[in-house]
């Protein structure tokens, strides 16, 4: 039987949980303890200190949708926070545990989440304001063709992400043990990469998995670049690159090259990847999603370039890379929302939406809107609505830095403490926990 003191501790905790369930977005920055932190130097996990009670970690894990660090709120309407706390309470009662200390620790965790949300909510760049800023910006007309992208107003106020539109992504939860596969989309959690601009607010398409070496590669499909193929060719100055691309249609060379990631290798031609909907027309192309292919024979592409619709081709440079163990750990922590396009409409919409607009401000804000649309399509409406902006980001960075610093001070293991110290320092320099290193 619970003591009176325990019941007194439970009541305010349940009130806090009910408030979080009414507004699930407040659960987004649930600053729970990272169960494991990947060390890119040692290529292994560094164990962090556990809470005073394992039941606290269980309750946090359940309330945050099965992720161990960054909360993934469950579908709207499911009272995950209150449900997990009630289940935790029953366990404590069954074992005859004094509940008050655990309840206070849980309330502190939920309080931190509430505070982080309030900091972000003060941002001048809320979701609604971004939508209003781009209300009149729409996708350029797509050319008619067998696999031409559908005519959607990607960045306008009439964008609808629902089952009727066909733009729904199959969500794969953080607790799902199924390993990543080619074609999976990794959508950045709103706060997991706040200090890492290269990955923040990204939609990454997994395009290659090397089971022998244990490497995974993906490319961001929503980050426009600042140079065309022709401009990059001029900057390269490699005769071999010029020879390969000499037969390309001028319109293809004028396409803006998207930033697929921070990692690259080889020459321009070797590093330039073409995402397209041309299928078997390009020999050697690899299918990576429904009606979506990657790469292929450049010479054949050059010979056919005059008959290719620009809406069916997208050049990308660079990639993101992980070891399989590192990516599995980041998915466990909730760094990414993993989803999959099961229809050609969804795959083409999220991987081929236009960024060739002449308006500079549209190119700057389009990645954020497509990122939010992907979260919405994956059923994470509260994540999609999470406010972001300069003020919000500054506050969130400070909260996360303080969290890692406090964990480093609490850690008795010197090696783990030093690791957390490096994580905090890298966070100041643009690298936050959950970052990626060359696989």
TrEMBL record:
Source taxon at top rank: Eukaryota
Bias (Gly residues) ranges: 430-439
InterPro entries per record: AlgH-like (IPR003774)
Residue ranges, annotated region (Disordered): 405-439
CC annotations in GO: cytosol
Sequence ranges of Basic and acidic residues compositional bias: 405-416
Signal sequence residues: none
Cross-referenced Gene3D superfamilies: VC0467-like
Xref: PANTHER family: UNCHARACTERIZED PROTEIN YQGE, UPF0301 PROTEIN YQGE
Name of the protein in question: Uncharacterized protein
Species of origin: Polarella glacialis
Lineage of origin: Eukaryota, Sar, Alveolata, Dinophyceae, Suessiales
């Amino acid at each position: 039987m619970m003591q009176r003191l325990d019941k007194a501790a439970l009541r305010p905790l349940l009130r806090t949980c009910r408030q979080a369930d009414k507004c699930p977005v407040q659960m987004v920055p649930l600053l729970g303890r990272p169960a494991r932190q990947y060390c890119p130097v040692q290529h292994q996990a560094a164990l962090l200190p556990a809470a005073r009670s394992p039941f606290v970690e269980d309750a946090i894990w359940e309330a945050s949708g099965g992720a161990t660090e960054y909360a993934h709120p469950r579908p709207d309407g499911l009272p995950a926070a209150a449900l997990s706390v009630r289940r935790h309470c029953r366990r404590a009662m069954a074992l005859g545990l004094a509940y008050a200390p655990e309840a206070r620790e849980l309330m502190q965790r939920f309080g931190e989440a509430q505070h982080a949300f309030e900091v972000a909510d003060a941002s001048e760049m809320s979701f609604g304001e971004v939508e209003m800023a781009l209300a009149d910006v729409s996708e350029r007309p797509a050319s008619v063709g067998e696999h031409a992208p559908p005519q959607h107003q990607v960045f306008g106020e009439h964008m609808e992400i629902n089952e009727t539109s066909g733009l729904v992504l199959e969500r794969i939860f953080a607790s799902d043990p199924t390993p990543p596969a080619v074609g999976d989309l990794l959508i950045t959690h709103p706060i997991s990469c706040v200090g890492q601009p290269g990955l923040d607010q990204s939609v990454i398409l997994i395009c290659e998995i090397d089971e022998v070496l244990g490497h995974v590669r993906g490319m961001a499909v929503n980050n426009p670049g600042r140079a065309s193929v022709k401009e990059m060719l001029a900057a390269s100055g490699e005769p071999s690159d010029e020879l390969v691309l000499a037969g390309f249609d001028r319109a293809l060379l004028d396409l803006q090259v998207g930033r697929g990631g921070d990692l690259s290798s080889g020459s321009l031609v070797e590093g330039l990847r073409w995402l397209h909907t041309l299928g078997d027309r390009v020999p050697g192309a690899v299918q990576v999603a429904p009606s979506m292919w990657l790469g292929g024979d450049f010479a054949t592409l050059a010979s056919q370039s005059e008959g290719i619709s620009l809406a069916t081709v997208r050049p990308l440079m660079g990639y993101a890379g992980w070891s399989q163990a590192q990516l599995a750990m980041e998915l466990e922590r909730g760094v990414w929302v993993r989803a999959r396009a099961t229809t050609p409409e969804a795959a083409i919409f999220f991987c081929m939406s236009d960024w060739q607009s002449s308006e500079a401000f549209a190119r700057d804000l389009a990645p954020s809107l497509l990122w939010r649309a992907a979260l919405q399509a994956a059923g994470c409406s509260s994540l999609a609505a999470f406010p972001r902006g300069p003020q919000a980001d500054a506050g969130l960075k400070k909260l996360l830095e303080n969290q890692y610093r406090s964990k480093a001070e609490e850690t008795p293991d010197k090696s783990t403490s030093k690791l957390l110290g490096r994580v905090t320092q890298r966070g100041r320099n643009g690298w936050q926990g959950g970052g990626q290193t060359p696989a």
